[in-house]
Amino acid sequence: MGKLVEALEREGYRDGETLFGAPYDFRHAPAPAGQPNRELSLFRRRLRALVERACRANGGKPVILVSHSQGGYFALDFLRWSPLPWRRSSSVSSPSPADVLSLPSVGRTFASTFTALPSPIAFRDDTPLVVTRNRSYAARDMPAFLAAAGLPPYSVQLYETRALPVALNLGAPVVPVTCVNGGGVPTPEMLVFRDGRGNAPEVVYGDGDGVVNLASILALDEVIGGDPRQQYYKSVRIANMSHLGVVSDSTALQRLIGEILAAARAVDTRVM
Predict the structure, then answer these.
(1) Is 69 designated active site?
(2) Which of the residues 69, 82, 119, 155 is marked catalytic?
(3) Is residue 43 exposed (0-12), middle (13-18) or buried (19+ Cβ within 10 Å)?
(4) In this structure, what DSSP letter does residue 151 have?
(5) pLDDT tens sequence across 8-55
(6) Each residue's pLDDT tens digit, 107-139
(7) 8 A C-beta contact, residue 252 and residue 241
(8) I need a labelling partner for 196 at 20 to 30 A (CA). Which of 6, 50, 99, 137 fits?
(9) Catalytic member of 77, 90, 96, 243
(10) Which residue numbers in the chain have pLDDT < 50?
(11) Could you confirm whether 216 is annotated as catalytic?
(12) Does 28 participate in catalysis according to the annotation?
């Protein structure tokens, strides 16, 4: 995000005055209702206090949240846990919080590991995402795949009771949203284990940004943009742009900064 911050500063934003950072612990992940997460609850409280302080320091103007990659997931979680009247005092511009086909990482035990698994929201049919000699696994089969991959029952349960319910309940934040994504970059779409799971799989590539595939990007258009309560939603796709390039490439930064400045002008119009 460093180059994005520098670009914003060139447009007149000032650290601690009109530009603020909200770091988070990537090892944690949003939890469904009824399953509190102390670290996430603390993050939400701190972020809410930061938003309110930034708003007061700038004449009561709504705040624009800008996030990237997993940060988008945290931003959506934060907004959906915030009361709607308070939520509507903010305007959101967020690169994609999406599901990623990144199965080699399943050996880690962080709760956030499982947020990267393909969601049935993005892959609703029986499209095989993992193929082994014995069977194929679609997005809805991820618990069976995790068990077959050798993860202990506790880890499979962690996915089924925490990550999966959050993914299935992903919804519109009901504040203005702009999603900016790359595309045109070979992105993992399927893993094929021809010689058993102990060997490295063959990776079948499709379209995406190198990390987030096209199906996940299109799912945002449906889940957020297709919600009748979502009054404003814009999806921007930058051709031949990688996941990291969205916040570092000069061409992408020019487009991203343009979207942020447009959101800022809309905020000024609403306040007036």
Answers:
(1) yes
(2) 69
(3) buried
(4) -
(5) 999 999 999 999 999 888 788 787 877 878 888 899 999 999 999 998
(6) 344 456 677 788 888 887 788 999 998 899 999
(7) yes
(8) 99
(9) 243
(10) 92-110, 270-272
(11) no
(12) no
